[in-house]
Design brief:
This is GyrI-like domain-containing protein. This protein is α+β, with helices and mostly antiparallel strands. It is built from nine helices and nine strands. Strands 1, 2, 3, 4, 5, 6, 7, 8 and 9 form a nine-stranded antiparallel beta sheet that branches.
Length: 286
Amino acid sequence: MEWLVRMKDALELMESRMDEQLDIEDIAKAAYSSPFHFQRMFHMLTGVTVAEYIRKRRLTLAAQELAVSPVRVLDVALKYGYDTPEAFSKAFRKVHGITPSAAREPGARLKAFPRISFHLSLKGDKEMDYRIVEKGPFTVVGKSIQLSTRDGENTRRIPQFWAECHQDGTVGRLSSIAPDKELLGICTDMQHDKEQFTYLIAVEAGAGAAEEGLISRSIPAASWAVFPSVGPLPGAIQSVWARIYQEWFPATGYEHGEGPELEVYPLGDIASEDYRCEVWVPVVKR
């Protein structure tokens, strides 16, 4: 309940300052959270980033003003954080499908991105297994791709990337480099303000194991909350991810540790009802 109140306070702050400069530090402070943890929680719970939510809410309010008042387009653009009419027009058209000037015309069709609200949902009828693992720094070797979280691009692109890496032999190469290690799906270099991150398909191996077309990356030491996933992919592991952010984080004294997130995939039939894999999330005690 305390967590719910904090998230509502943060939303109230955002809504009250849509026409002002919004700093993520202030928003996160309203939720008694680190900026990284708040942004990750918000994205996982709502499906949109904080930046995307603010952008779409501002363009919704801007459209309403243009439709009912004679205010200049330039003034509306500046009010909602756009430096030039051109930048405002481009963003406006992307959301509403028409120019800001066309929004004044009678019968103009506009889109509204509604205000998000959080409601208390009683859960806990199903136990959630986890363990805390202390692991020192290690190196991975693999193939990476830069992804955007805007408009859910990452949810579409990651499965495609896995399919490409199977088809071009990357997965087979990684398995031969470290035959005793599981395949890893790694989200790292998360830049919430820019709505992008790096995704790797990799294995744990020394930097010298990197072959042509592969890269090596260092994963820092961390305390990891490790969650088992049992069932066919991707449904089973997606359910685990949802429960981590909807149930586990709000119910525990942990926050995200701001490091990479891992999915650990042993060999096996990923379509099987008893396929087992794991989610590793870096955590710190609040």
